[in-house]
Amino acid sequence: MDVKIKYSIVIVAIVIVAIAGYLIYSDFENSNTITITGSTSVVPVAQALATAYMSNHPGVKITVSGGDSGVGINDVRSGQVDIGASSRNLTSSEAEGLSQYIIGMDGISIIVNQQNPVNGVSLDQLNGIYNGTITNWNQVGGNDSTITPVTREAGSGTRADFETFVMAHETYGPNVQISTFNYGMLQMVAVTPGAIGYVAHDYLNNQVKLLTVNNITLTQKSVQNDSYPLTRNLLFLVKGTPTGNVKDFIDFTQSPEGQAIVNNVEYNFTGTNNTYNPTSGIGYSGG
Amino acid sequence: MNVNNLFKPLITTKNPRQIWFILIAICLVNFMFNFYIGMSNIVLPTIVEYYHTDVITATWISNIYLLTLTISVLFLGRIGGLWSRKYFFITGTLIWVTASLLCFYSTSPTQLIVIRAVQGIAAGFMASVYYAILDRTFPNERLGFALGFLLIALAGGYAVGPLVGGYIAAYIGWQAIFLAVIPFGLASVIIYLFTAQKPEADNDFELINTRDEYIKKDPDASSTNIIGKILDYKGAILQAAGLFTLTYVLIVAQKFGFSAEDIALIVLALIFGGLFLWVETKQEEPLFKFKVFRSLTFSAYITGLLLNYIILYMALFILPFYLQKVIGVPVNVSGELISVVWFSAMIVSLLAGGLADRIGVRPLAITAAVSCIVATIIIYTFGTTAQWYLILVAFVILGFGYGFYQSPNNKMLLSVIPLTFKTQVSATMTLTKNLGSVFGNAFAGLIIATAIAQTAFSGKLTLTGSQAASFMTGFERIFLFGAILSVLLLISALDLDKYAGKYLSRFFKGYGDSEKSGSEELKKLYKQN
Lengths: 287, 529
Description:
The structure holds 2 protein chains of 2 kinds.
Chain A: H1 3-31, E1 33-38, H2 43-56, E2 61-65, H3 69-77, E3 83-86, H4 92-95, E4 98-112, E5 120-121, H5 123-131, E6 148-152, H6 157-167, E7 177-179, H7 182-191, E8 195-200, E9 209-210, E10 212-213, H8 220-224, E11 231-239, H9 244-254, H10 256-267
Parallel strand pairs in A: 1-2, 1-3, 5-10, 6-7, 6-8
Antiparallel strand pairs in A: 3-11, 4-8, 4-9, 4-11
Helix pairs in contact in A: 2-10
Chain B: H1 3-6, H2 18-51, H3 55-82, H4 85-105, H5 109-127, H6 130-137, H7 140-171, H8 177-180, H9 182-194, H10 199-202, H11 205-217, H12 223-231, H13 233-256, H14 260-282, H15 296-327, H16 331-359, H17 362-380, H18 388-416, H19 422-449, H20 454-458, H21 465-493, H22 496-507, H23 513-516, H24 520-528
Helix pairs in contact in B: 2-3, 2-7, 2-9, 3-4, 3-5, 3-13, 3-19, 4-5, 4-9, 6-19, 7-16, 7-18, 11-12, 13-14, 13-19, 15-16, 15-18, 15-19, 15-21, 16-18, 17-18, 17-21, 19-21
């Protein structure tokens, strides 16, 4: 036989063995891997839970990636991931065939500039500010200055929740500005004296002022007893009934140990979750 | 049926208008490049939050492109010259556009990084050849205008990218920015494919002649063997390794300052660089002919190109921080203010290109260098309470410093060198701009770190009191350094050959040879400048 052909056969055989080996190995890996995608608001909690769980179960690998609640719901329904994460309640058609687990609760923080003397607003006032009927801070007990309401971009999960609580299908006023990310929202409120905005609680920074809503301060207690008006559930979703590692991990999230991790992430905020601002250092493109 | 008939040009090669179609095709791609960067800078923070990824990963989504483009551009230019610059450009555009479509469908930051790496190499296909195409397409008396037109596309992309990107992210969703660029690439491909080209722009005939000579000398040699000799794989690998290490260190250092590991990597980059030099002197057909630097004008202007980019990118690195954290403007407003620099550059660039054809390159390069000096000095004096009009004036002048410089400089670089260097210089110009941007960002990051720790202001929404004062110390150092570089830029723009040429030729054997080896026609062009 030609030497070249011999070599070719050997190479093909090696490649086949390597691919087969990889497939068997990856299949083995998959059986011990739990994948989670979905709401960015749930991700920090999910990551902390995953890290703690993996340290107790070295054979299990959990990957957590973001997206939004819609991504989490769709991915788990289509079977692409083991667990979907959502920070909003599901519609009845979405909920069909899914098991839902409340792993924690989160409050949307209403924030203003630190110089603003106003300490709180009611849900009705918030609604007026964002639909454009209340335009001056003196209408809500503050100084005579224009209000600059800031909302998040289309598709943001936090915006969807905010609109459910505050807007009730009304449209935004013409004075409402849009920030496309949490840092931008925080920074705009920090530098604009008349601004008002909102962020997920774990993004809160001590350079902006947190307002009470309906005279209730956002705390662990007010969120957990649902007295804070802008409280939402953080959900884990599983297709059908969880089994094996997935069930074990879900059970862990519901245990006292798991709940302590959730509360630590949600309420012991360090204010460092917003350090990334790559609007500087514009890259060269090749042109 | 012959496939080529399908793409039969709709106008003849004799038609004088055809050169404008080529220019439009190249400009569309260049607009697309910067429009994309302008948009993606705006949505990167959104992407980071969407995937909840870390800062390092986020930085790599934008920087991997720079890295793969840098290491591939010299080598790709050579392949393009051998094959067909036109098809090379079109292939690159199609890969780039496909990568953009894949970015739209990507589901993780890791996927984005991998796709962006491929896209950087695709950008290398276009970026390595388009200067050579323009140079061989346009007569010298029109080249400045064409290069000015090109700069309008480049600066225009940067100017409108953030505005459009911000709008798309707010109302449609950030994923859509990856689709917004595709029509420009496809339009370029269609225009380029169906209009006539100058056949002389399509290949590096010198390189093809060399290949044919090798075939004549040794008709039995395999084609791989000959291509291997011409393409200089060893040199390509060494320069890629050197540039990769250097760019990598500069990108990493940009945010955190130099560590011991970084310095070790710089030494490694220098070793690769040294090996590259050594290999190139031994090579019969080197990837990079260092002889090109024997032209003092070329050396001065390529250094000027580097300096101009460093000055600009130092400013672009630090100004958003200054505007957002010291002056206290919202993130989106700071983006709009920075756009002023690009709009200003865009407006003057066509004027500069046209004038370069009439009055020569030097007066414009000198105007640009003086603009850089004035702009850096004004910005140096900003302080913590700069007036709006002063900020706008400084940004407009900074735009002049870029807009007045680029097309005259590019024209000078392309026309001062003989034909044998065209392919190499076309790619080198891209490489120089690329390195200038990386150096600019790295220098600004390193200098600001001498006055204030990165950690002291990265988590802060605003800076006040002593932190603002420390930041301003670093800020002033950056622009003082910028002013010094601007003076060097001014010196590089002067007629150095006149002042120093005769001394240099006395000391360095072979100085000025590169001009002598050019054709008569090119010597004439050289004199015009």
